[in-house]
Each structure stands twice: as structure tokens, then as C-alpha cells.
């Protein structure tokens, strides 16, 4: 029986991927084999020694101590692209909300008092405050052309906008998906200087913390509208407030409310709703549940943020050995020597590395005795050894 410890509200459709006769899933499990979560800020101490994998039913993994998990030989899975459409829709909605002052206008209309004739008079008198602008012909800057950024860029093109994009590490897959009408910026500064509206879709990490700062806002076009559905810390909030006060920035639409943003006319802060659709929650939970199951049951790794992709079809009737080790020379030699010394014949083998880690899957004929596992586990640099029968 495998045990999955859950944090947050994980879609039932995802939890149903774990067969009840083989899996127990609960937010209250003493000795979990895996952890599944959404935005819960996971502490290393919440991951017991025996945990084999962590699954993030979503995109961002900045809430997970990924480096600590890597040191312990634990893959962290996520669900690339599974919530991209949901975030794209809300971001595109954000363009309209800002361009037409919809939230501010709605608040104005909602609070009108008096007779219908008086309300009508106030409407006609007040509506000039909410004159907006249309999207065709405006330039949208998209920072981060991953699963979400590409969808946002292509939709903005379809809406008649000009789009300029910046992503220093765009993948070949995303480049193929991106409309050829999206213009490339070579830096954030160049993008900011060319755009009327800017939307950020890069992950939060040490390189992107404070990516949108005071000097970048100062160099941007006056009247810029900034959208942030990535992470709060990618944008320096104080710099945004100052740029709004100076009216250099015309609006800030984000998914991350805070005290400082409260009560500001030109700020629309939503309660982290980017991925909060039934479809996206199901997609993410199903994708991550399937990846966790595959890892637990076969050792295969798909979509881990800290491990290489290793997918080897299960052959024969023997055991499978899965070894996580430091990416240093001669590990493979020592693993195969230990197997050969025990008289075990290797049927198939796959070894791949990523950064400081390497992962090896070996199918052998017959059963692997515990002593062999112990020998391999004692090799310097081996972080984890597991046998799947
Ligand atoms: N508001 C929400 O509910 C919500 C939902 C999903 C994702 N997100 C956030 O959005 C982020 C992006 O999601 P995604 O699914 O598109 O991820 P993704 O990994 O597919 O794309 C991220 C892209 O950002 C690029 N990037 C990295 N550093 C960059 C930099 N310095 N400048 C420009 N581009 C850079 C990467 O090369 C990559 O192409 C997530 O990491 C998460 O933090 C928020
Ligand atoms: O990175 C993500 O996938 C989003 O921020 C979604 O977070 P959530 O799963 O808590 O809604």
C-alpha cells in the first residue's frame, strides 16, 4: 500500500487516479511515500525521511524546498502547461479590466444612490471618468514565453495587438508554438520601452525576484499598464506604488493582494485565482497523480523539476533497481559491478544526469537480494536505492 500525504484542496479527479486497493490518500498520514500539494509552503521538516517524491499540482515550485529535496534524492514533479489556459484567460481578462476600468466603473455604479432618474443622471455625469482604450494597435510586452506566456502572446495577436516577447531560455517546443508575429525583445528594458502593457509570466527564482523594479518602471512608457499573474515577488511592490503615485504607471493588475495595494483606485488585485478553474485543477491533479504513480510503481520520471527525464519500459519478470546518485564519474561502473558480483544479469539499463544529480534504472533477471541493495547504498555519492519487484 502506498500512502500519499496531501496539502491544499486537490481535485478529486486527480485523487481518483490512485486505485483505492493500492493507495491511501489523506491530509493526515503518518508515514507517507509521497507528498502532493498546491501552493502550501512546504517546509523540509514536513517531508519525512521515507518520502520518495513530491508532486506539485500546478506550475510554480517556489513554495517547495527543491534544493533540499535534491540533496535528499527526492524528485519534485509539477504539471507543466496543465493550468496555462486558465491563467491565459484571466490575464486576457486583466487587459480588458485595465483598459476599460471595469472594476472601478462597476464599484461606482454599484454604490449609486437615489431614484432611477438620479442614478441615470449620475451615470451620464460620472462615466467620463472611466473612458478607456481598445486593444488593437496597442503593444503588449510578454516576459516569459513558457506555457502561459506563449498562450497569452498568441491570444493578444488574435485580438489585434502588437506583441513583443522576452525569454532568454525559451524552449524549442514553445518557440514552435509562438506566433511568428510576436517580435523578439533582447532584454527586459527593451521590452518595457516598446510596450503599452506588460505582463509577466516567468517563475520566481533568485534571477527574477524584483525583475520589475523602480528603474525599469521609470524607463517604461508613461501610462504603462502592468499585469502580474506570475508571483508577487517578481515585481517590486514599492516601486509599483511609487510609479502609480507619479501616474507614470496607469494601472497594476495582479493576482497577489497585500495591505499596501488595498484601496488603490488604479490597482486590481485578485485572490490568486489564475489557476482556479475546475478544468485546470483537474488537469493539474491528474497529471501529477499519474506522474507520482508512475514513479512509485515503475521508477520512471516525467516532468520533474530537479531530475532528468527517465522513462524505460518495464521488461521481463525480474526486479528493477532505481538508484539516485551524485553526478560523478564511475557510478554506473560501481552499480553494475555490484550486480555482477552477485551473479545478476542486467536486462536493460538507463542512466541520465541533470546538474548535480544522476538517476539510473536497471532491470535485472530475477530478484535483487537485500545485501546488493546495501552494497550499492553504501557507495559514496549514492543518495537512494530502491528495488521495485
Ligand atoms: N497566478 C496563478 O495562479 C499562476 C498559475 C500558474 C503559474 N503561475 C506562475 O507563472 C509562472 C509561469 O508559468 P508557466 O506554466 O508558463 O511556466 P513555464 O515554465 O512553462 O514558463 C516560464 C518561462 O519563463 C522563462 N523565464 C525564466 N526566467 C526568465 C527571465 N528572467 N526573463 C524572462 N523569462 C524567463 C522560462 O524560460 C520559461 O520559458 C509559474 O512559475 C508560476 O509562478 C501563476
Ligand atoms: O503556480 C501555479 O500553478 C499557481 O500559482 C496555482 O496555484 P494554486 O494551485 O494554489 O491555485
TrEMBL record:
It catalyses: (2R)-3-phosphoglycerate + NAD(+) = 3-phosphooxypyruvate + NADH + H(+); (R)-2-hydroxyglutarate + NAD(+) = 2-oxoglutarate + NADH + H(+). Its EC number is 1.1.1.399, 1.1.1.95. Gene3D superfamilies: 3.30.70.260, NAD(P)-binding Rossmann-like Domain. GO terms for molecular function: NAD binding; phosphoglycerate dehydrogenase activity. Residues 320-389 form the ACT domain. Pfam families: 2-Hacid_dh (PF00389), 2-Hacid_dh_C (PF02826). Keywords: NAD, Oxidoreductase. Pathway: Amino-acid biosynthesis; L-serine biosynthesis; L-serine from 3-phospho-D-glycerate: step 1/3. It comes from the Bacteria. Signal peptide: none annotated. Belongs to the D-isomer specific 2-hydroxyacid dehydrogenase family. Catalyzes the reversible oxidation of 3-phospho-D-glycerate to 3-phosphonooxypyruvate, the first step of the phosphorylated L-serine biosynthesis pathway. Also catalyzes the reversible oxidation of 2-hydroxyglutarate to 2-oxoglutarate. This is D-3-phosphoglycerate dehydrogenase.
